[in-house]
Amino acid sequence: MSEEAAQLRLLRPVDPERDHLRGGSGPGAVTVLIYGDYLCPYCRRLRSVLGRLRRALGDRMAYVFRHFPNEHAHPGAEFAAIASEAADRQGKFWEMHDALYAREPPLSEAHVRDAARGIGLDMDRFEKDVADPALRARVDEDLADGRRNRVTATPTIFIDGRRYDGAWDFYSMLETLEQPVGARVRRTARAFAALPSSAGIVLLIGAALALVCANTALAPLYHRIVEARFGIGSPGAALSLSLAEWCSDGLLTLFFLLVGLEIRREVTAGAFTEVRAAILPIVCTLGGVLAPAAIYLALNPGPTAPGWSAPTSTGIAFTLGVLAVLGSRASVSLKVFVAALAVVDDILSMLTLAIFYPQNFHALWLLAGAAAVAAMFALNRWRVYAGWPYLVVTLALWLCLHAAGVNAALSGVVLAAFIPRRPAPAAGPLLAQAATALSALEHAETQARSADDPDRPPIEQEPIWDWASRNLSAASARLLSPADRVERAVSPWAAYVVLPLFALSATGVPLNVDLSSPAALHILAGVVLGLVIGKPVGICLAAWLAVGSKLAVMPQDTRPRAFLGAAILCGVSDPVALLMAEEAFPHSDFANIAKIGVLIGSVAAALVGAFVLAASPPAGTEATA
Question: What pLDDT does residue 377 have?
């Protein structure tokens, strides 16, 4: 998430003393920044839209231009950019900017000099300035800034410091710039979603709200809601579940689908593609599971032993969120290591749920589930890209797992394994398809304007409009594989709806639980100490053994203190731990005690880990271990 946020934000803010800025003197002005190329044909087409926007908004719009010449694609673009900077030394940047865009390509150096004469520049001074290396350096600075902002093509648009990836037509951009209520809500939502810790924040709000409801006068209403049963069949039937059970068995399927897609990505193109690169997070995950379990079992050798799994799960949303907030204190390789560790941790958590906590187990239903898995395999092998067959089979698998007594949400992981991925398409044919559709549409619009026929229907009612939209949709859809489309569609629902609802239904435990019995105290202490002490000790000890035996290497540019801080942060748990507490102690007060331990341990691990990381020097200032 943090990397995506870095791509969306303008890393170097607009500086009126350095940047080329036009307009924006009105109150509450919105800033439109363009990384552009004077020979780029798309920049030239966008210029007419920008002109209409400036006329519509007046001084309420500030226009900023930064250079991003593509000399390879547009020979002469660099000279044109340098020439505009030479004109700026005579106070005529915008005159030169407009003159260059007003001339039709090709734009040779002679044409650029003609444009300079046309705006009345001192040509002797212009020639000296064009040859000044400082101006080329100025253009190169803009290029470097653009690359840091992940600019790969021109024009790239930033509005008020955030990249604009919407449509380039006048009305779409005008709506964004005018910021009506709907646009402001969407923009605020996108800004919040781009925060590295946004998913963790929403999850924390859900958990906090549940605790408030369960420990105030709202408690009877809260429990009545989460325990309300609905579904198919009479009360007590297989599909008659409480709201809390639907959240844990039903909604969490979407969360496990995302986890499965993440695991698949790491195996095929991520941290696990090479065995040596995958060894350290795998070994550290095992240490981070075994050590908390050992601490818990040492304190709970008797009837409370089934809760050993509660302190073993790592919450990736919170952990990576804290790492992102601390910025340079955590190197990129350390963040990748933690993400890989969390992926392996998710695998072990799902195996734990499936193996150790099956309730009312019925093996025959597992055979039916195996048939559903075989059907998914067949759909994948037959290259079926439509979504509905996979949805039908996944529903069948969910029913089989639920009837077998296994957590049915694991069907999401199975689905992730078989959603088909297509090879990346060649850009050329898609470009030809999109360009053909848009060219035909533009030609039809031109003809409609020149026909001057009042009875002619609007262009959007013509058959060519539907034909063009279908071709553009097809070309756009081909850029994403079915798995990528599913991940994009499910991710916001899982992060901002599924997990908060699960936290809201699962963490509403009364804090005034009876801790007078030794068993209750041992459960609480085992979970808290397992998360705060067991997790970092197990991870660090496993890393020391793996690196010392030459089986693995530490993440690059990572200091021992930063590694320790990240290991402590891995003690921040997630909703899976709450689910494990429920499965370990079904219909028991011990489940609430284990959940309280998860919450206390997670908060303590977050605070201690953040403190250790904050005290660590920035990456690269200390020798690695």
Answer: 95
Quick one: 397 and 473 in the same domain? no
pLDDT of residue 538: 97
For residues 161 and 31, is the Cβ–Cβ distance under 8 A?
A: yes
Instruction: Determine the pLDDT at residue 481.
Output: 84
Residues found in the chain: 625
Mean of the pLDDT values across residues 164-181?
85
Q: At 560, give phi and psi (nearest 5°).
A: -55, -40
| pLDDT of the residue at 588 | 85
**Encoding tokens for residue 401?**
């797992």
The tokens 């200091």 sit on which residue? Answer: 559
Q: Give the whole-angstrom CA distance, residue 350 versus residue 359.
A: 15
Dump pLDDT digits (tens) for 193-212. Answer: 555 567 777 877 888 899 89
Measure the CA–CA gap between 278 and 283, rounded to whole angstroms: 9
- Whether residue 17 is contained in a domain is answered as yes
Residue 622 belongs to some domain of the structure: no
Q: Is the pLDDT of residue 327 over 70?
A: no
Rounded Cα distance between 60 and 43, Å, is 22
DSSP letters spanning 602-622: HHHHHHHHHHHHHTSPPTTSS
Range of the domain at 454: 427-478
Is the whole model's pTM more than 0.85, yes or no? no
- Over residues 31-40, the pLDDT tens digits come to 999 999 999 9
pLDDT at 94: 97
Q: In whole angstroms, what is the distance from residue 209 CA to residue 207 CA? A: 5
- Residue 235 within a domain: no
Q: Say whether both 445 and 487 belong to one domain.
A: no
Domain of residue 168, CATH code: 3.40.30.10
What is d(CA 321, CA 196) in angstroms, rounded to the nearest whole number? 5
* 52 and 155 share one domain: yes
Give the DSSP H or E segment for 331.
Answer: none
Sheet of strand 30-36: strand arrangement: 20-23, 61-67, 30-36, 156-159, 162-164
CA distance 188 to 173: 17
User: In terms of domains, do 276 and 169 share one?
Assistant: no
231 part of a folded domain: no
Dist. CA 80–CA 124, nearest whole Å: 17
Residues 320 and 445 in one domain: no
- Are 53 and 147 in a shared domain? yes
The answer on 250 and 163 residing in a single domain is: no
Domain count, the chain: 4
